[in-house]
Amino acid sequence: MAELLRIAPVADRLGELFAAAGHRLFLVGGSVRDALRGELGHDLDFTTDARPDDIEAILRSVTPAVWTIGKEFGTVGCRVDEPAGGGPEANGAVVSWVIEVTTFRSDVYVSDSRKPQVRFGDTLEGDLVRRDFTVNAMAVELPGHRFVDPYGGLAHLAAEVIDTPGTPEQSFNDDPLRMMRAARFTSQLMFTPAPRVIAAMSAMAERIAIVSAERVRDELSKLVLTDRPRAGLGLLVHTGLAERVLPELPALRLERDEHHRHKDVYEHSLTVLEQAIDLESRLSEQPDLVSRLAALLHDIGKPATRRFEAAGKVSFHHHDVVGAKLARKRLTALRYSADQVAAVSELIELHLRFHGYGDGHWTDSAVRRYVRDAGDQLERLHVLTRADCTTRNKGKADRLRRAYDNLEARIDELAAEEELASLRPDLDGTQIMAILGIGPGREVGEAYRFLLELRIEEGPLGPERAAEALRAWWAARDTATPR
């Protein structure tokens, strides 16, 4: 109630305007849920019996910042700016409320359609029963603050249970994406799905196939970006939904026997994700979707590369390369952006690079090559590599941590001496052509790559020494090339 009173000035004003126009207005859905949890932000959702044209007219009487992009579906939005509290301490600060008002809905879904046939309703109860979960099917009438909870949402909120207003089967049949949303709320709210919800998800998992890849992607991303995604991801795997949207994840549950022992790759991957989240403070973007996807998927190449070796050992040679290809294919199918796909697959391909230097003694050239290969993903690679240590052997974990501390220190030392962030040869293409007396062509690229490798191995040479080395390389190449 304290949260409701906090927003009362703007909410009650809207309620009074709708009432004066002969309509009813209700704060609804996630806004009520979050208010009751003491977590309400500045995005407010309302529902009303008013039709879209009437909603727009009323909102335009409050603010010029009105948008109608969802008007055909009954939703009109606006922004309302208000002074941030009273008194001189406010110092002119402004609070911006982002408001969406939607006409009561009574949508009808065709069984083989990805989209509902939008129909406007006339009753609040009819609108609430069409909502995804009971904790999102509560409302508060404005301006009188009458609480409306026909489907037991408050009791489920108190018991921390995810359930549906009607039957789960009807709810998930209406919109199959709600099954993934149940997984997301399992993590976001840390609630437990009701047994009937889990049963319906398991029985209807194949229906997720009619949902567009973009909607699946967005819901998966929201789940991965929660503070504690393990529970929701586990629900996707348990119910079989992951088999349809991210099959590489349940595939990590490799069978093990008493003769061939290896880590539980599935549980390991979830732990790496959790540890990557704990390390996100090192990154400029938080939460970071790319880093989290890379952590979750970094070992998806293992099922395809598993080989049983002598003495009960198991190998996964080249699982980094295979995993990068699998991730690129899956994330592309889910319509992630080209930049996100490239970054995640690159991190997966590089995630073992640190372990190629097992003794922990990094030469300058090895450090330069590591930084060059990581490029703009270096900070994320730091996070992924550190998170990938899940051993219970404290001594081994401490050795790995110290080794990576040493690597980062070496990177900082070299970065202070030379331009590690953008490794380039000491000569550019124009200088190469002038020194060798050649025009644009393949040879310029070969010379550039030679100088880049020389720069990595020996550090900055300066233009004169680089030109001398270039001439020697060109002469040796010219002698070795048959005429």
In terms of per-residue confidence, which ranges show pLDDT below 50 for 5 or more consecutive residues?
A: none
The CATH top-level class label of the largest domain: Alpha Beta
CATH topology of the largest domain: Beta Polymerase, domain 2
**Rg from Cα:** 29 Å
Strand order of the largest sheet: 3-4-5-2-1-6-7
Largest sheet report: 7 strands, mixed
The tally of beta strands, per DSSP, is 11
Q: Give the DSSP E fraction (strand runs of 2 or more residues).
A: 5-15%
**CATH architecture term of the largest domain:** 2-Layer Sandwich
Instruction: Name the shape in a single word.
Output: elongated
Brief description of this entry?
This protein is an alpha+beta fold and 483 residues long. 51% of the residues lie in helices and 10% in strands.
Written description of the protein model:
The chain is of the alpha+beta class and 483 residues long. It has four domains: 154 residues, Beta Polymerase, domain 2; 86 residues, Hydrophobic Seed Protein, CATH 1.10.110.30; 151 residues, Orthogonal Bundle (Hypothetical protein af1432); 52 residues, no CATH class. Helix content is 51%, strand content 10%. The strands form three sheets. Strands 3-4-5-2-1-6-7 form a seven-stranded mixed sheet. Strands 8-9 form a two-stranded parallel sheet. Strand 6 and strand 7 form a beta hairpin. The mean pLDDT is 88.
